[in-house]
Amino acid sequence: MTQTHQHEVIIVGAGGAGLMAALYASRGADTAVLSKLYPTRSHTGAAQGGIGAALGNLEPDKVEWHSFDTVKGSDYLGDQDAIDYMCAQAPEVVYELEHMGLPFSRTRDGKIAQRRFGGHTNNETKQPVLRSCYAADRTGHMILQTLYQNCIKNKVHFYDEFHVLDLLMNDGVANGVVAVELATGELHVFHAKSVVFATGGHGRIWELTSNAYAYTGDGVAITLRRGLPAQDLEFFQFHPTGILKLGILITEGVRGEGGVLINGKGERFMERYAPTVKDLASRDVVSRSIYLEIRDGNGIKGDRYVHLDMRPEVVNHYAELDGRTLPDGTPYRVTGEQLLSKVPDIVDFCRTYLGIDPIKEPMPIQPTAHYAMGGIPTNVHGQALSDAQGTIVPGLFAAGEVACVSVHGANRLGTNSLLDLVVFGKEAGKMAAEYAKSADYKPLENNPTDFTRQQLDRILGKSGGEKVVTLGEEMKTKMMDDVGVFRTAEGMASAIEKMRELRERYKNVSVDDHGKRFNTDLLNAWELGCLLDVALATAVSAHARPESRGAHAREDFPKRNDAEWLKHTLAWMDGDQVRLEYKPVTITKYEPKERVY
Amino acid sequence: MASQVKPNFETTAWRFMRYSGILLIPLAWFHVYLQDVIVGVHAIDIDYVAVRLADAGWVTYNFLLLLFAFAHGMYGLRQVMFDLVHKPSTRRILSILMLIFWLVVSAIGATALAMGARPELVQ
Amino acid sequence: MLVYLKIYRYNPEAGRNVPSFDTYNIEAEPTDRVLDLLEEIKGHIDGTVSFRRSCAHGVCGSDAMRINGRNMLACKALVKDVGTEITIEPILGLPVLKDMIVDMEPFFNSYKSLMPFLINEDVPADGKERLQSPEQRERFDDTTKCILCAACTTSCPVFWSDDQYVGPATIVNAHRFIFDSRDQAANKRLEILADHGGAFRCRTAFNCTEACPREIHVTQAIAEVKNAITSGGVEH
Amino acid sequence: MAAPSTPLKNTVKGYATYMGREGHYAFLLHRLTGLGVLLFLTIHILDTATVYFYPSLYQHAIELYRATPFMLGEIGLLFAVIYHGVNGLRIAVTDMWLPKRWAIEKQRQAVRITLVVAILLWAPGALVMFYNMLLHNFHVDLLAFLPFGK
Ligand SMILES: Cc1cc2nc3c(=O)[nH]c(=O)nc-3n(C[C@H](O)[C@H](O)[C@H](O)COP(=O)(O)OP(=O)(O)OC[C@H]3O[C@@H](n4cnc5c(N)ncnc54)[C@H](O)[C@@H]3O)c2cc1C
Ligand code: HEM
Ligand code: SF4
Ligand code: F3S
Ligand code: FES
């Protein structure tokens, strides 16, 4: 028995982007939010370091500098009109979050506190700038909580633990979604005028990841299956500092507060790769440097990791060497207590999972899969696009990590994702409501749940088939080895083959649980299907790009090739065939140049 | 800020539990130690009680003890009752019954204290 | 090392309408999380074992459960800390729907009853941030850490007995606003908490503080709320 | 449909099986001793009141108190009053004046100290009561066994 609901705007996902969209959409239209997790469980809550905005609360900063840093960070693949828009909106949305109640850390004079972050600089001095607005090391947690709180205040309608499995379209117009209610296992049809996808990323494709179990690329996979393209999937960020073997993230904020990367020889090796900003170079650069150190046998004890050191004596030593000062000009000095108060959760993670105290010992770290720059192509209004010409898909919007505006291009700067969520979540919410007001409900097809049923029945109909975890593990290892930090043509070709094989074997996947209530077994299997689709599209997109740009680093093509490859990839999927097209990058003020930090 | 949070029965009772508790430390401990340890039940009989209750000081002492200990204990019991009984109407009925019980028992105790022992009536 | 797990099972759909335990022996590392063991069992041995999880590092609040009789997050409990004989049960006091999955609605309803949002419509004329000193910010820092995992509330003896008690998590979240210098409804919240089912039901059993995976001083926050009420409210 | 349970069952299960730390057991013991003392107090008020209302009964009551099981109970009562008092003092003082001490390490410590203090305050009295019991009910004089005894 399928229930049908009708809401003018349906928002899929209750992370930062979804909730921000919900707040704005609900002001103008009847809005409901569907989320497979309770809203406060969303991955936005894991974000640590901060949200970027050129407030200049502690030292001079400018919106233009933020824009330029973002363009440069994106390795010139970001669309500059979108970047300008985001950076210009940044101060306003940060103040808006403060007005909503977000408990930012504060400066001595009561303003929002700011810290340094990778790739964010004073464009004149080229030195790292205090731009990341933070609430200790749980900025994402506070954003998620604050937005959820405001949704409660504004009585936004939630369907918690509803897992969306399909997007409904009629004649090229989005008109709803199909979701399974976890508690009952029943399918529900949501008929809508506007649908906003804010489902987050897909970092679970890789073995070592900072991403949550729920990060399975549902949004991208669903739209791919509905014949829509995915943009720039080859650009996936590996964060330099994940806890050894676990992948749990150690925020860049640690380096912002003065922490340094040290190799097995005790050298601060980032001096060699990024002489100016050193440990605060952008993430792709740092991750690659760590890999190179490890490859040269400079890992700790020759092993596959290096140290992130934030012991106060080490921080102070290097701060002195760098001639680092506080905003008032006095030399930069920290104590263990100050560090603890600035990154308490990091200290807790290290104590819990590594049994070490980072104030007394260095942390063993490894690059970890972290952030999808690519996703559903959208314009600055969050409207989803269906082709290289920028044709809008009526009724469909996307925001947050699932979307590709593109403001992050080939590499995202730290703090820019949280910013992306609120800026474009807000825009998508507004536009979705506006669109809903001017549009009618497009009628639903006759059997809107058919496609979903097929997918589920195929899994439920089998027994004794392939195991979900086995396929998942093979996918993760292969992607880590061959579509990871460094890539080669052969490696990626074999990854493509492997993904095709796994997708074939996936047809034979089976689960133990055949019930309805909270059948997480079934949903894990369904999510694996999404991951495999996105993994294949990622590998194909990556294989087709013979250059190194941002997070996409080719050993066989180590240079950036602006003449031929300064363009976005669009990937369509048809069965196990992936079709690629390209579209130009919007360039306004900043001509591509070589990127040095 | 203009609005003040007004104390209600629960908040007053919460404070009462704490202050009366502190008061009960000397009152109850001394009482128990005196009667059970220093004097001992074997030395207690009605004549002993009669002597004590003839003394205004001891009567006051016992009176305070009765007042605080029993009120403290009965409110504590009410808390436990609230844990186990959730229907507002039942809670109210039991609260009233407990109030009556408290008043009756306290009255009986207080009367005995005030009137003193009557060893002469022992047959 | 070999780990012996005893897992609570309940699933009326599959005919298991009387809760019982299943046992599993699996190989594990001392540094494995209990969540890793559950994933191992679900993935390789019995896919019907059900539990919630997402972040796997103690920040999303999905996987509070009773491990060896005590509330914890499965993703923050390591084998070396809980031992090689591990009993896993759902948290106590919320209706159990399937295995470790409980109905969280009553918990979130309680949370929502205390207006968990900043109440202050005045914003600075220049549109910038309201000022707040680091000391004022520090005043409620501890209670901003809450991830709504319910480990505290479902460890509380008063809550087991009386589900009309709002529970420690709700008070923690009210505390976060009551002591925020920017909030203008502190005393309204305090009035609600002064009533039946509010802060004065707390008997300082302290299980909440012991259970909190975010190391929030829960009992302390409750005591501060109680004192704010008995002293007539707070002023910022 | 949810797994069958009631608040009462949860309470019993929780009290009996939750592996709480010191605070949990302090709570249980405080409640148990509080209720125990209250039960005794109620009886005690009523039996003592017989000195006025029904003096003949009083002697019966006192006889009863002198019986061995009752005397053992009174030793327990002494502990209950003392433990409940010390622990109540911990709660009252922390709650009203030192809320910052509601911190894990401090409370674990405080609860343990409470128990030790209670036992120390109780032990001498308990010994005397035990001595009296043996002396009066069993005609055994423990002091006689001491080398320097009578
Ligand atoms: C450890 C970590 C630290 C980070 N630190 C920073 C930082 O300091 N600064 C910064 O700018 N960025 C940071 N990021 C990146 C940033 O946090 C994320 O990119 C961002 O939070 C994504 O937000 P979102 O709203 O798009 O998705 P999410 O917050 O993940 O929300 C996704 C939502 O979609 C729902 N959903 C998904 N699939 C479905 C489905 N099929 N049906 C229904 N609902 C669904 C989920 O339930 C969830 O509610 C960090 C990321 C990580 C992992
Ligand atoms: C000796 C000094 C005493 C002190 C310092 C003391 C202190 C306290 C305190 C502070 C509480 C409140 C606990 C809470 O709110 O969580 C309490 C509860 C209680 N007290 Fe006492 N008390 C004392 C004596 C007594 C006596 C003599 C009795 C019996 C008549 C008694 C019976 C109770 C009961 C039944 C409770 C409720 C227990 C519960 O809710 O779990 N107390 N006591
Ligand atoms: S206070 Fe702690 S235990 Fe309670 S819900 Fe919040 S994080 Fe969980
Ligand atoms: S466990 Fe419960 S009784 Fe109070 S101190 Fe915590 S809320
Ligand atoms: S899985 Fe997120 S808290 Fe454990």
Task: Note down, in words, how this protein is organized.
The complex is a heterotetramer of chains A (597), B (123), C (236) and D (150). By secondary structure, chain A is an alpha/beta fold. Chain A has 17 helices and 24 strands. In chain A, strands 7-3-2-11-19-18 form a 6-stranded mixed beta sheet, covered by helices on one side. Chain A is globular. Chain B is built from 4 helices and no strands. Chain B is mostly helical and 123 residues long. The N and C termini of chain B lie far apart (69 Å). In chain B, helix 3 runs antiparallel to helix 4 (88-115). Chain B has one domain: Up-down Bundle (3 helical TM bundles of succinate and fumarate reductases), CATH 1.20.1300. Helices cover 78% and strands 0% of the residues of chain B. Chain C has 9 helices and 7 strands, in the order E-E-H-E-E-H-E-E-E-H-H-H-H-H-H-H. Chain C has a 5-stranded mixed beta sheet, with helices on one face. Chain C has a two-stranded antiparallel sheet with strand order 6-7. In chain C, helix 3 packs parallel to helix 6, helix 6 (168-178) packs antiparallel against helix 7 and helix 6 (168-178) packs across helix 9. The N and C termini of chain C lie far apart (56 Å). By secondary structure, chain D is an all-alpha fold. Chain D is 79% helix and 0% strand. In chain D, helix 2 (22-53) crosses helix 4. The longest helix of chain D is centred in the last third of the chain and has 35 residues, at 104-138. Chain D is extended. The N and C termini of chain D lie far apart (73 Å). Chains in contact: A-C, B-C, B-D, C-D. At the A-C interface, helix 3, helix 4, helix 11 and helix 16 of A face helix 1 and helix 4 of C. Residues 12-18, 34-37, 42-44, 46-51, 139-140, 163-164, 198-200, 210-211, 214, 218, 249, 251, 371, 400-402, 414-418, 421 of chain A line the site of flavin-adenine dinucleotide.
Write out key terms for the chains shown:
heterotetramer, A: 597 residues, 6-stranded mixed beta sheet, 36% helix, globular, B: 123 residues, mainly alpha, 3 helical TM bundles of succinate and fumarate reductases, elongated, binds flavin-adenine dinucleotide, binds protoporphyrin IX containing FE, binds FE3-S4 cluster
Q: Can I get a quick summary?
A:
With 236 residues, chain C is an alpha+beta fold. Chain C folds into two domains: 100 residues, Beta-grasp domain (Ubiquitin-like (UB roll)); 127 residues, Orthogonal Bundle (Fumarate Reductase Iron-sulfur Protein, Chain B, domain 2), CATH 1.10.1060.10.
Radius of gyration of chain D: 20 Å
The end-to-end span of chain D amounts to 73 Å
Derived structural class of chain B:
mainly alpha
Question: Element order, helices and strands of chain D?
Answer: HHHHH
| Helix percent band of chain D | over 70%
Q: What is the tally of beta strands of chain B?
A: 0
Low-confidence stretches of chain B: none
* CATH C-level category of chain B: Mainly Alpha
State the helical fraction of chain B.
Answer: over 70%
Distance between the terminal alpha carbons of chain B, to the nearest Å? 69 Å
Bound molecules: flavin-adenine dinucleotide, protoporphyrin IX containing FE, iron/sulfur cluster, FE3-S4 cluster, FE2/S2 (inorganic) cluster
SSE order of chain B, one letter for each helix or strand:
HHHH
Oligomer: heterotetramer
